[in-house]
């Protein structure tokens, strides 16, 4: 199909840019199971969810039928500031590998938030603004989501309160200062401004915090203050909807040159990048129009798809959010220190989980050191220094390309390069010094955490 | 001229990409004065320069006649990995300012080196490789040049030895690790592997180093080891030649939409970005074809154009490099701690100096705090968090746009956004905390430093 010469980077013109998000659920025969109210164990109503989330976002969360959702003009305008993101042909990497495979990557790190998170941040901020809210609350661990949210809120003039896990607030001051520069408030969690924060500070003086605690604080602040709602950067179906822009653009760019990917690879933490990248391709597969191989890559240290159970579980360690049916290691699972902070999540998007359960997606887990080896090879040939999260996808793209070298197949591989590693140089330092560790949880550790998942009628696993 | 709708970002197709660098000297009536051998005070011969620099680069350094230099195919191929850089219409900033001015910026931070430095790094690495050299040596202070050079050398498989000022090596580990990740050697300077390094370490135990010392070490290593040459990231005329790609692309993109800038603004440290950005526009002005207003912006803490003298001076504090006629504060001038590390240079490109001397360029100096205020406004409206260096240009672009608001003029402003501020969050932290300082050197301090510039027949100032 290579009739036209494929440039290094394929951009779309403004008129070629997608105007719709694609909602995979509309084409799924088995829909993801509904969110449950942890108190009643009944499906959450829109009204219940609207105490926590913006009205329009609740609609999107519950929308299983509309295939295409028009992207509001204001969001399209914002997208134009940093989108289309380039679809890049990895000519240099192909050459270094000596592979007949054709490798493409969709690079989402071309904005100061440094990752794809901005695609959903601007959407969530827009709907908050449209609802007439004063501001939003959220949490951040590694910092990509907090950065993206603060950027989006700066643009729209919304207040943004980011509860940042205290150890990250203190030990990773760079991300904190990016958040502050965008005019958002970075609040070390546990703080003294919420009930749960005060309680934890009293019980554990000097506590360095956790993502679970930060979520609980953000939700509490939002539900107790007029004009605030809580926003979340992954896992939710609304987030995958917004992130479908990645796949929509990638598909439009490939279609423009008559390219059909054989294998599509994405790293998966909560599933927002993977779900977004594969969306329109998966739509074709679900409708039986075309076939693709989809591969989700997770860290061996936090292998929810490959070693977790498919069950209803809490989305947060604080157990204040709705329960979701997903592949999970249990909300009390504590992943070992893995530098790919964005992949240290115990659960997985309900949509990705269902698709994996139904056999539409494969999953693989990879160790940290081999991931950084791939990152090093990639940056030395392609120039871009990738985020550790993205490097999981790079690792498997390289594996697949090397298989093609053996078999002689000329497969077309597409992977998601979610972001840059500018703020991860501590991890690279450990790799450069040969002091990186590769901890893989034992079966006992995983069993211990999954045994704590609540069991109730309909939640057998 | 706005007949077509101007997109947020104007990209060039591969076939629209410039194939030539433009050599401003070919159109200058008053050529820059030749480099002098500091020992003989006579113009440096090609042979003398070839002990330090690559052969082909010496030719380019001395070439005052060829208007266009073809860019070798290998460099064009590398450029395709991260170029064209986007020419962006600052619609959001314009709206926030309420100005009738049209503001465009050419963004050079879309690559992991984070700045425009890569444009010359790959050229210099290419000619070193072509000459059959084993590797190159260089120095780095703020770290952008060291990063860019290590990236280029990784691509071509050249050894790269980066002498990094020791205090920067120890206090800014992130840049050091980027350099190492690309496979280059980062060596804290003063080191024990050169004569000058050992001498300084013996005289001043625990010395934290200086850029001058790092240059001396890099030059010494290159001249004493077979197969090595020294490379420099700014100031030299060859560097401006390579950086002309910025202006060539910007002009091609503007011409595509029939846009003619009235004012062109660039920050100026050694002059590489400014010289590159203005190149083809200046060519038209020099040939009397069109008129433009050019403004060079420097930090008030290191004001070589606005407060220096026009004289032959050493390019390095170690006084080992050739002497150059330029605007200078004296090679012994010590700028106060200014976070825009890339602008802390005592001198200026000979080409930019001559053009300024002949009245083709204006110069202004701006204080650090007002620069960061402009950076904050820019990032909150345009999304990209700019490097402190680039923010000097932003400050003046905003000033000019606000003047248009008063007068009602619809001027078209173009400025260079040389890089991102990812590695400058310490400076942003000081700004966010209100603890940033604004030191402006006194007339006495400047006189003291310029008095140390060597005087000899023909070097009256």
Automatic annotation (TrEMBL), chains A, B:
InterPro entries: Trp_synth_b-like, Trp_synth_beta/beta-like, TrpB-like_PALP, TrpB-like_PALP_sf
Alphabetical list of Pfam families matching this protein: PALP
GO terms, molecular function: L-serine hydro-lyase (adding indole, L-tryptophan-forming) activity; pyridoxal phosphate binding; tryptophan synthase activity
Domain Tryptophan synthase beta chain-like PALP: 82-419
EC number: 4.2.1.20
Keywords, alphabetical: Amino-acid biosynthesis, Aromatic amino acid biosynthesis, Lyase, Pyridoxal phosphate, Tryptophan biosynthesis
Pathway(s) per entry: Amino-acid biosynthesis; L-tryptophan biosynthesis; L-tryptophan from chorismate: step 5/5
Catalytic activity from the UniProt record: (1S,2R)-1-C-(indol-3-yl)glycerol 3-phosphate + L-serine = D-glyceraldehyde 3-phosphate + L-tryptophan + H2O
Top-level lineage group: Bacteria
GO cellular component, one term: cytoplasm
Cofactor list: pyridoxal 5'-phosphate
EC category: lyase
PANTHER family per UniProt: TRYPTOPHAN SYNTHASE, TRYPTOPHAN SYNTHASE-RELATED
Assembly, per entry: Tetramer of two alpha and two beta chains.
Function field: The beta subunit is responsible for the synthesis of L-tryptophan from indole and L-serine.
Annotated family: Belongs to the TrpB family.
Protein's UniProt name: tryptophan synthase
Species the sequence originates in: Treponema succinifaciens (strain ATCC 33096 / DSM 2489 / 6091)
């Amino acid at each position: 199909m290579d009739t036209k010469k494929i440039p290094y980077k394929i951009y779309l013109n403004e008129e070629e840019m997608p105007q719709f998000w694609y909602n995979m659920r509309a084409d799924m025969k088995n829909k993801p199971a509904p969110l449950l109210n942890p108190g009643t164990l009944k499906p959450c109503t829109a009204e219940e969810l609207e105490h926590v989330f913006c009205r329009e976002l609740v609609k999107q969360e519950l929308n299983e039928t509309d295939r295409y959702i028009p992207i509001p003009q204001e969001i399209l305008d914002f997208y134009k500031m940093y989108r289309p993101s380039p679809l890049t042909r990895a000519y240099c990497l192909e050459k270094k590998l000596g592979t007949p495979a054709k490798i493409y990557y969709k690079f989402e790190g071309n904005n100061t938030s440094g990752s794809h998170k901005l695609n959903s941040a601007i959407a969530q901020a827009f709907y908050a603004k449209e609802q007439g809210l004063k501001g939003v609350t959220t949490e951040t661990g590694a910092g990509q989501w907090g950065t993206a949210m603060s950027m989006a809120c700066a643009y729209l003039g919304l207040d943004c309160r980011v509860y940042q896990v205290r150890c990250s607030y203190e030990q990773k001051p760079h991300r904190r200062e990016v958040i502050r520069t965008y005019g958002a408030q970075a609040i070390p969690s546990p703080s003294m401004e919420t009930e749960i924060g005060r309680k934890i500070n009293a019980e554990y003086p000097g506590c360095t915090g956790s993502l679970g605690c930060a979520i609980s604080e953000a939700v509490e602040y939002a539900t107790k203050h007029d004009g605030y709602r809580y926003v979340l950067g992954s896992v939710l179906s609304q987030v995958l909807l917004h992130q479908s822009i990645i796949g929509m653009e990638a598909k439009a760019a490939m279609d423009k040159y008559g390219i059909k990917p054989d294998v599509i690879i994405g790293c998966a933490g909560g599933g927002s990048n993977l779900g977004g990248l594969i969306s329109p391709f998966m739509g074709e597969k679900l409708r039986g129009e075309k076939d693709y191989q989809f591969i989700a890559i997770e860290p061996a240290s936090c292998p929810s798809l490959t070693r977790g159970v498919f069950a209803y579980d809490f989305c947060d360690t604080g157990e204040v959010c709705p329960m979701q049916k997903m592949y999970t290691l249990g909300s009390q699972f504590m992943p070992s220190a893995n530098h790919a902070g964005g992949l240290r999540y115990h659960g997985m998007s309900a949509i990705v989980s269902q698709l994996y359960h139904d056999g539409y997606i494969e999953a693989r887990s990879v160790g940290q050191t081999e991931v950084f080896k791939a990152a090093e090879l990639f940056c030395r040939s392609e120039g871009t220094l990738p985020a550790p999260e993205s490097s999981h996808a790079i690792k498997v793209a390289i594996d697949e390309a090397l298989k093609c070298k053996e078999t002689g197949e000329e497969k077309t591989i597409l992977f998601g390069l979610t972001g840059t590693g500018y703020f991860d140089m501590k991890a690279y330092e450990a790799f450069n010094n040969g002091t990186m560790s590769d901890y893989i949880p034992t079966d006992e550790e995983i069993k211990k955490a999954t045994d704590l998942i609540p069991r109730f009628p309909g939640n057998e696993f």
